[in-house]
Amino acid sequence: MINVPYLIIIVVCVLFSAYFSATETAFLSLNKTRLKTMIEKGDKKAERTLAVSEKYDKLISTILIGNNIVNILASSVATLFFVELYLNLSHSAHNANEMGATVSTVVITIVVLIFGEVIPKSVAKDVPEKFAMFSTPLIRLLMVVFAPLNFLFSMLKKLIAKIFKLESDTAMTSEELIMIVEEVQQEGTIEESEGDLIKNAIEFNEKTAEDILTHRVDLEGVKTDATKEEIAEVFTESGYSRILVYEETIDNIVGIIHRKDFYVGSGISRKPVSELMTPPFFIHKSEKIDDLLKLLQKKKSHIAIVIDEYGGTLGIVTMEDILEELVGEIWDEHDEVTETFKEVKEDEFVVDCSVNFDEFCDFFDLPEIETDSVSLGGWIMEQVGKIPEVGDEFTYETIRVTVTETDSHRVAYASVVRIPKVEEDEKEKE
Q: Is residue 335 part of a domain?
C-alpha cells in the first residue's frame, strides 16, 4: 500500500524546489530598467520586486537555504517511501534499506533535475519580471523567517573577504558597456544607428582634442595685413563661415573673422579688420572633448585653437567636430562629399589618408597596432621613416600600402591592397 502522506510531502518539496530555482533565475535575469518603468506607471508589485532585488545577498541566501531544505527533505522522505514500498512489494526485509536508498536517489535526482531545476528555470528565464513579481510575496516572508541564518552567512562572508582580502569591483568598464550595446544591437532590440549613438556617447569622454582636430596644414587663414578683397577671396574659395587671422605665421593666431560680421547687407563691412575679429580661444591638445564642449558653450565660441607642448598651433577643433563624435558626420552645403575608402577593383582601395587610424584598422581587419599617430597619413610616415613621396610602398600584415598623392610634405591619398592568403603563405615559406 502506498504511503500517501510521504508522497504528498515529496510532491510539495519538488514544487518548492521548482519555486526557488525559478525565483533565482528570475531575479538574476530581470531588467531593472523595465521594473522602474512599471513603477513610474504606478505598479506596486514592481516596486516591491525591485526593493527585494536590491537586497541581493539576503535574497540569494534565502533561496539557497530554502532550496537545500526542501531538496534534502524530499530525498529523506523518498528514501523512507521507497524502503516501505519495497517491503510491501517483496514482503522481505532483506536489503530493504539499500534498495530503498538506491531507488530513492535515482528517482529524486531525475525528478528534481527535470521538474525542480531545468523546466522552472527555463520558464523563468523567458518571463523574468513576471515571475519575480509573482514570487516576491513569499520570498519576502522567507527572508524574514531566515533572517538569523542570513545574518550568520553575511558575517561569514565578511570574515572570508577580510581573511583573503577580497574586494568587490562592480564598476563596469566602457569596453564592457560597449560589448553590452553590441549584443543588444545583434538581438535587434535597438536599431544600429541607435546603438552607434550610444557607443559614441560611451567613448565620448575618453577622446581628446588631438584625436578630432583639423590639422594646421588644412587650416584657412589670412595675415593681419591682408586686404578685405583677399579675405573675401578666402571666404569664397574655402566656403568656411569662419577664418583665422594670424600675424606672420599660423603659430601666432590673433583672431577669428566670422562671415556674418564680414559681410553686411549687400557688401563688405566698412569696419577695419581688427574690429571684425573675435579673440581666439586656446586649448592644449590633451583637453578632453567633453570638457571642451562645456568650455565652448561657456565662452560662446565655435572654434578652439589647439596648441602643442611648445605653444605652436597644432590645429583647430570646432563645435561641429565635437558633435560629429556623437552623432556621426554632419554635412552642410559647403562640404565636399568624398569617399574615405574608394574601391577601384577587388581588394584594392584608394584611401583618404586623413582618416582616423583606428577606423582604417577596423576597415581592413588589422590587429591592434601601437602608434602615436592619429591619422593614417601619420602612420604611413612612421612606416616609411621619412617624408613620404609618391611611389613609396611597404607591406604590413595583410595589406600593401602605396603612396599615390602627397600635399605639403604629407600623404593625401594611398592605394591599399589586401594581400591574398596564397601570397601570404608564399612569403612565410620564403
A: no
Flag whether the pTM goes above 0.85.
no
Q: Count the Cβ atoms, other than its own, within 10 Å of residue 306.
A: 25
The most distant pair of C-alpha atoms in the chain lies apart, rounded to whole Å, by: 120
H helix intervals, 41-95:
44-54, 56-90
Q: How many domains does the chain have?
A: 4
Backbone angles phi, psi at 42, to 5 degrees: 95, 15
Only one residue has cell 570646432, namely 318
129-179 pLDDT, tens digit each: 999 999 999 999 999 999 999 899 888 888 888 888 776 555 667 777 778
* H or E, element range at 101: helix 96-111
Report the alpha-carbon angle 159-165-169, nearest 5. 105
Q: Are residues 28 and 152 in the same domain?
A: yes
Angstrom CA distances, 326 to 158, 180, 190, 318, stand at 43, 18, 17, 14
Same domain (yes/no): 271, 311: yes
**Count of H-run helices and E-run strands, the chain:** 19, 15
Range of the domain at 252: 212-327
